[in-house]
Design a protein that fits this description.
The chain is an alpha/beta fold. An 8-stranded mixed β-sheet has the order 1-4-8-5-9-10-11-12, with helices on both faces. A two-stranded antiparallel sheet has the order 2-3.
């Protein structure tokens, strides 16, 4: 299955939570499948922290890697593109086509860099809403996403409650924890302590804070795994040696693995975007406009919910999903919940394809039948 990147320029400036406006906002998106005549089979996929619009398929037959959730989305898969019209856009603040710190400020003709305004998850969703309106979709069948994508899903459910039949937040939280904020802070400190960062103006300085960005990625990547998965995959195995080096070179396989992950990340992601997007997740708190009361915050919800967590996820543990489910039940909303037993940690939402795919397929099938029988 081949997919094509597309761009949509918002016709009006985008008003942001910080009080500023962004002019000439571009949204990069991709679609798969076909919108039916009634316009009732559209599903919006919200990506996680470092994802992009390329959610499934390939851009060209010779591409080695398909989209980041190709195992879940496509003909006959959990989200079946023979049945559904799938949309995924790069988030505001990203570095994969949608307006972000890499973009040119129309007022200066120069890259925004750190003059780009601080954004929130709600700002990301406002940009997505403009795209959905542009596509002529009056009501989505579903909004689906894991991790930071799940935050966007929850924001959709309360900000635009009549815009979707159902939502599927996966491995996510209703508010970022102190632990999550702490990890984000350390990551940004690693980037901004890199001598090549130049206060965010590294492109003008012909430099790149690659070392700091790689360290930030390594820190974050640990939170996506679990002790069980790391022990199973690496244990205390040595990397390319039979005994300790007695210096600070790579001794252990897990050290080499993390360095590889950091190096690959620097090849595809922008340091300033990483700072902005992690800050948006720090600010995420669904209860912020309800005086900290989650039950009150969820009152506007109209969509049916499928909430999914994973047993070994310690970044957004099952307790976070339990709190969400209790809040929905207190409001007498329709909610199904599954805590999948998995040793993969937070990354399970990308790896537990068979179990998660079956859950999503059955839930969406029931939702679509309800729509068709109205």
């Amino acid at each position: 299955m081949l997919t094509v990147p597309r761009d949509y320029m918002l016709p009006e400036p985008l008003k942001l939570d910080c009080g500023r406006e962004l002019k000439e906002v571009n949204v990069r998106y991709e679609t798969a499948g076909t919108l039916n005549e009634a316009g009732t089979n559209a599903i919006l996929i919200d990506h996680a922290l470092t994802g992009d619009a390329h959610v499934c398929g390939k851009h060209a037959p010779e591409d080695k890697k398909p989209g980041w959730w190709d195992t879940m989305i496509g003909p006959g898969k959990g989200i079946d593109t023979d049945k559904y019209f799938v949309i995924c856009s790069n988030v505001l603040g990203g570095c994969s086509g949608t307006t972000g710190p890499l973009s040119i400020d129309p007022d200066t003709g120069k890259p925004y860099n750190l003059t780009f305004p601080v954004i929130t998850v709600a700002d990301m969703v406002r940009a997505q809403k403009a795209l959905i309106d542009h596509l002529g979709i009056k009501k989505l069948l579903a909004v689906v996403g894991g991790s930071m994508g799940g935050m966007q899903v929850l924001e959709w459910a309360v900000a635009y409650p009549d815009m979707m039949k159902c939502v599927i937040p996966i491995a996510t939280t209703t508010r970022m924890s102190a632990q999550g904020i702490a990890f984000d802070w350390i990551g940004r400190e690693a980037i901004q302590s890199d001598p090549q960062w130049h206060n965010g103006n590294y492109r003008q300085a012909d430099a790149n804070p690659g070392k700091g960005l790689a360290v930030a990625r390594m820190i974050a990547h640990i939170t996506y795994l679990s002790d069980e998965s790391m022990t199973r995959k690496f244990g205390r195995n040595l990397q390319d040696r039979e005994s300790y080096s007695f210096d600070f070179a790579h001794d252990f396989a897990v050290e080499s693995y993390l360095e590889y992950q950091g190096r690959r990340f620097v090849e595809r992601f922008d340091a300033n975007s990483y700072c902005y997007i992690t800050r948006s997740t720090d600010y995420f708190d669904l209860t912020a406009h309800a005086n900290g009361d989650l039950v009150k915050a969820l009152e506007p919800v109209q969509a049916d919910f499928l909430v999914v967590s994973f047993s070994s996820d310690w970044l957004f543990p099952p307790a976070d999903s339990h709190e969400l489910v209790r809040g929905l039940l207190r409001n007498r909303k329709k909610v199904s919940y599954s805590n999948i037993q998995s040793g993969y940690g937070h990354d399970a939402f990308l790896l537990e394809v068979e179990t998660l795919g079956r859950l999503i397929r059955d839930f969406l099938g029931n939702q679509m039948r309800e729509v068709e029988n109205v």
